[in-house]
Amino acid sequence: MTDKSPLFEFKDVHVEVEGKEVVKGVSLKIFAGEIHAIMGPNGSGKSSLSNALMGHPMYSITKGEAYIKGESILEMESDERSRAGMFLAFQYPLAIPGVSVANFLRAALKSHRGEDADMSDFRSLLKKEMAELSIDPAFATRYLNDGFSGGEKKRIEILQMSILNPSVALLDETDSGLDIDALKTVSAGINRYHDDSKGILLVTHYQRLLNYIKPDHVHVMSDGKFIKSGGPELALKLEDEGYDWIVNQTTVGA
Amino acid sequence: MSESIQRQTRDLQALNTDYASKYGFHDPVDYFHKGAKGLSHKVIEMISRMKKEPKWMAEKRHEALDIFYSKPMPTWGDSELLNEIDFDNIYYFMKPIEQQKDNWDDVPEYIKKTFDRLGIPEAEKNFLGGVSAQYESEVVYHSMREDLEKMGIVFLDMDSGLKKHEELVHEYFGTVIPTADNKFAALNTACWSGGSFIYVPPGIDVKVPLQAYFRINAENMGQFERTLIVADKGSRLHYIEGCTAPVYSTNSLHTAVVELRAHEDAYIRYTTIQNWARNIFNLVTKRASAYKNATIEWVDGNLGSRLTMKYPCVNLLEEGAKGEILSVAFAGIDQHQDAGAKMIHAAPNTSSRITSKSISKDNGRASYRGLVKVHKGAENCKVSVECDALLIGDDARSDTYPTMEVDNDQVSVEHEARVSKVAEEQLFYLTSRGLSEDDARLLIVNGFMEPFTKELPLEYAVELNRLIQLEMEGSIG
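^ inputs. structure came back:
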């Protein structure tokens, strides 16, 4: 444990979707440099938690607290959370027809910096980051996620993360829909982004992403709660034995 | 591309105004001639006399007025709004100055200022081959590059066209849109004034666009410009039309007739960016005839007005003719854009594509009204119709009235219609990247319009995005 205050923290967070409680009081502290993974079966509330933390209007946080660098985010709109340093890589990124990847990124960057990025600086940044993620340069002028494959969308999410360079990244099922090559490229992108000033929260169903991105802490979520936390070895055990043993164990224990 | 966006963003920042202050100003004017309100054979006679026009044209006008009187108001479309028009409370002819000028310095200061504010002289300098500026009933400034004139290209206001090329005008006037086509075509034929006359000789490619700008300044004004464009065999032309008017509490009327003829292998693109004040009734008939292997493209942007009823049409009269209509309409508060397209396939191996995009916001209403007719002998035709409507807010309305009449079975027809809302999920996606909700919504709307905007010359694309920004500002709930 460190004496420093956490980069990102939430306490006893409850989330409702359409009047139904799907997250039932979870707490977590992420310190700078840490990678946390939330694992759990489908429907356990992992994605609801990450959407709610980013400010999705359909997911309301009915109880609890959440802070980035000590500042409460719950009163912030999602754009303010983004500008405060948060990022959510979407499980299902949306298409914005007619808006090119480059123009969108430039607009997003501008909202963060409060002014237009220098054109040639932006171009070279975009070119470099796209190359790192093995994205065909032609994608810069394609309409955002419009007709993109699942894998292409995920790469574009990581591209957005690299360019906006947030302090805290919530990655929601970023590994789903990726073949092994894409998984390697995307993981490399995430590792390149990560340094000791950043915090990452990976939300994933499968362990395979964790072969490429080493978490410091793993939390198992079931029925809206964290039922077990541990180190990376927990993820491996889940891979071998599935979720049943742990879910059963806690049910019995409860 | 990105530089244009950069410029556009800068323009957007500089823009902190609304229609009233940017376009809605009006000039105090001492007209050379301002008749009385109301319409009669006497008024028509006066117009004819002032124009010193040939007898056949005077006769055509009087005949047209009788047709106008005899035809009932349309009962389709938005008849409730249509019946708000008070034909007795409109000026049918206002002549601002005695003589048209070909040098901006000779144009009276107040008029020059108006067009300066609208950026016309600058556009002329930068990228146009010729400019016509109409103020109320007549063109007050007209000029074309000398080199284009030497190529034999005729670009005149319609009044001068009739004087200098009477035989051509006589041959083509009213042939694409007959007087009795509809009540408003008849009205235009009776009191037409101004507009453009263009003739492009065989094989000539007019590489720079020609533009006409129509400005209504007076209250209760009726503007009835008449445009005739003839592209002879194998020639090419891009013509651009823009319009604005001041904001008044009572209504004005804009009723144009535009006829295009593209002869064998000719190409005409006709681009309109109309940006009327909210008190304008805009009832316009636009139609083109395309002959063998000719191409007609209507690129039609409809912003502003109280009610717009406009359905550009292409008659595909001979084999291989192509027609394309790309239109957008933005219906804001208390506005009804009843816009659409017509494609008439009268010959085999002709093809047409209609792309209609509309945005309705607040209680605005956008209707697509379209007709595709494929005649019996017109085999192997290709038809594609795509209508795309975007709704902003819960009170916005969109209707689609597509009609397809296909009289033979050797035709390929594609038809798609979509209505979408700016989705909460899309907004969340963009705001989660730091964009404010307003910026996110504007980005989605601009993206929706992109298939249209990308067809415009850069300057107009930027202008259109500014106009959309204006429309988006303010009353979002």
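The longest helix of chain B spans residues 437-453. The two ends of chain B are 32 Å apart (CA to CA).
thumbs up if we can close this ticket
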